[in-house]
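Form 12-C: Joint structure prediction
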Amino acid sequence: MKRSELLSRILIMTGTLLTIGAPLFFWTRTPLIHARMAENGGWNPDVIQAEVGKPLRLSLTSDDVVHSFAVGQMDMEAVDVEPGKVTDVTLTFDEPGTYTFYCTRWCGPNHWRMRGTIEVGGSSSDPEPVSVPLYVTLGLDIDAPHDAPVVPGSQPSAARGERLAANLDISQFTNSASYLANSPYQVFEDLEKTNLSDAEKWDVIAYLWQSNTTPATLAKGRELYAQNCAACHGENGAGDGVFADDLAKAGEASMQSMAGATDMSMQAPVDFTDSKRMLGAGPALLQGKILRGGMGTGMPMWGSIFTEEQIQALVAYLYSFQFEYPVAE
Amino acid sequence: MAKFELTGNPFIKNTLKNRWPQLAVFIVMLFGYIFAILAGLVGTSVGSRNFSIVFVWIAWWAILILVAVPFFGRGWCAVCPIPLPGEWLQRGAVLAPPEKKPRWLNRRWPKVFRNIWLQNVSFLLLALFSSVLLTTPDITGIVLAAMFFAAMGLSTVYERRSFCRYLCPVGGFIGLYSQTAPIELRIKDKQICAACKGKPCYNGSASGYGCPWDVFPGGLTKNSYCGLCLECLRTCPYDNIAINVRHFSADLARPSARMDEAFKAFIMLGSAMIYAGVLLGPWGTLKDAAYNVGTSAWFVYAAVFLGIIFVLMPSLFALCVSRFENFTLFKKRFATLSTALIPLGLMFWVAFSLSFVLTNASYILASLSDPLGLGWNLFGTANVVWQPMLTSILAPGQTLALVGGLIWSARTAQKAANEARTPSIPVIAYCCMTTLVMLWLLL
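Section 2 - Result
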């Protein structure tokens, strides 16, 4: 064989092998966590192993639209995961346990189903006792209807309530245990003994609710609400978020198909401006709903993502759709 | 304008005759092609960040339709890597002359398929799935690999570059539009070819291979089926092959009257218009129908697509050119006059491609630095932000291309009409009508 022929063959063969081999080599050595809309598979892999105290470096990419990555109950800023780009995140866990990571971008009607877990192994230096949620201690059935039979004619004002409360003995209602355990309507009933008009009672209740939170907490609640709840429940709480129509439609379709659990059962999101519903629900009940999620309704379970404090901030903020009180800007 | 013989320059001629420069380009293209397949299969599934989509459907397509075809005709075929492995198999060598006895079956291509109908079909097959093909890296990877292996497989059964000549979905329209290019490979003196014994340009010799495109250069009158592989330049013992620069659309002065080519012109004209509507238009339902392959909406879209190309456009054209006469004559005139659609179709594609190439060109830089979407930044351009380019010249450029195409077509129609001894006005009217539709679709 002539040298030129041999040379050309060697060139083609080695070049071809390199063209195939080199990218494959690097490809197998770059483990990526792929984000896809929940309908197309969500996170892959969705279970990640880690060790306490050992930095966990993750490379995230999106295969479709912009997603975002955050770990529940962890003090971290959510990072955007853009289509075709790679975002690196390094996490260090102080406590062992199962952490939930999730998408914080409204990527589709099933956005909240985009979740995965990080299983952090190792021993804990300071194990925290597991606390039972308040709604369980109180024996509340959070799935039972809880509508308030009486609602105010106009929006109750905390400012007016504060002025009225100055002349009342309401000490039994001002402690946080009472606030958490009772619905506004229960307090309304308890105020029967007073000689306030109905509207005045509601104003006092608005004040009581306000006194159990702070403008800063409400602002935190609003931020969490905007990030995590508004997509379905709507920016103004009216149950009219961008996905509300899709959820209602999907709910109808799943009811009609009788496919049961194989279909994603959903329904129209709850309207927080509905006074009957909201004034009949106490903070412990709302906390329970957020914590556990609305089973079979499409409302996600947030217990693995929000801290106790964050849920309380959210609950306080939810009442601002009923009561007139200031939220810090 | 008289022809200017490029190969008259000894440097150009020797560079072209030498196998190494062409082989070097071939090899680079081959690696690029293989990498595009690989990127499609293992790279990110986000089309705009994947080398296969960005380099094939944006960069290569831009070069092909805006530069290679209009100015170099089949220039792309001269360096396309697809036939390389097949020819190596067929010849048993990359550079050395083939053995006397063929290694494989070496059959003649079936006579019934010795036309471009199969290329029409293969193009349409891709065109019907184009919304998915152009955006989904793994589908692009699979299609590129399928073409690669089909060419290789066919080389073991049939002689020469049968895939390129009869099946390649791209080769068909490159051939059609190469007739308009200002470059040609032709013989210098007919008498020399007539007297030449052995015809090494077709049969091969120690200096090179017999025409891989199954063409006898002595009979070349148009560019359509000459792949510019330059073998005849190497094998001709009489130095009778020339590469000439000529005026644009020289081949169209002698219209061919072939139905397969006539329909190629309709397919290309029609699909440019449909693409403009689907890919650049504001109609979401249409986009969804084209994208959701296999759904009933897609079947409707496919039926309408084929209906426009095979029924609506040819029927309207037939109405424009029909006269009372026998069918054979009518077919001949139909095919002859459809030559006028060739420059129009080319310029439709130029106008359409300008739009999506300028819109998407900025993806090229990002994809160059991170071709597989693995988070690399090889050239520091991985995070270049997407930005449409030269937006100010887009609309004027497209209008110029379309109006220029119309004038060019009108001139071609006049020549073709003279040939067919028929008035050119109806054909020009047809071209005007389609141009107006295209202008509306694009602008």
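Section 3 - Comments
The longest strand of chain A covers residues 56-62. Chain A touches chain B at residues 1-2, 4-5, 8-9, 11-12, 15-16, 19-20, 23-24, 26-27, 30, 32, 59, 61-64, 83-86, 88 (CB under 8 Å).
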